[in-house]
Structure formats: structure tokens, C-alpha cells
Amino acid sequence: MGKGDRKSKKGKRRLGSSGKSRPSIRNKRRAARKAAGTAKPAKKAAAAGKATAKKPAAKKPAASKAAPKKAAAKKAAPKAD
User: What span, in angstroms and rounded, lies between the C-alpha atoms of 37 and 35?
Assistant: First the structure.
């Protein structure tokens, strides 16, 4: 439980990683927002309005192509006896 321990805060600081015991700033903000009960900023609501006005074209399923056939193996020349 020291500098080499990846699960401790001290070890994570030394390794420069983040996780459960040392969350990144982005994840700290998410947790704070979730605890406060607030949703994401209003950008998403504006984007949702744009999405309903313009529908993307439906994509056609890709046609499956047959794998190219391999060339037949060359036969060895007959032995001369």
C-alpha cells in the first residue's frame, strides 16, 4: 500500500492514472451533477430540436460480398524414371 500500489491514491498519483479511488476531474463533475440531481447543460435540448427538424436518410444494409477464391495449388511435374 504505497507508491507501487495501483489501487491507492498515492500509487495512482505516481503512475499518473485515475480510477475509483482517484477519479478524473471529468468524472468528479459527473458525480457532483448526479448527486445534485441536475441534468446536462441545455445544449442537448437545443440539439434535440435540430435533430427532429432534419431526418437523416435511412441507410441500406451493406451487400455481403463473397470472399475471393484462392488459386488452385500448382501440381508438381511428374518424375522421370
Answer: 5
pTM: 0.31
Are the CB atoms for 34 and 43 separated by under 8 Å?
Answer: no
pLDDT tens digits for 19-70? Answer: 778 888 888 888 888 888 876 665 555 555 555 556 666 676 666 677 777 7
The span from the CA of 66 to the CA of 31, in Å, is 49
Closest CA to 16 of 3, 28, 30: 3
For residue 7, give the C-alpha cell: 489501487
Place of cell 498515492: 10
Widest CA span of the chain, in angstroms?
Answer: 92
* Cβ pair 19, 26 in contact under 8 A: no
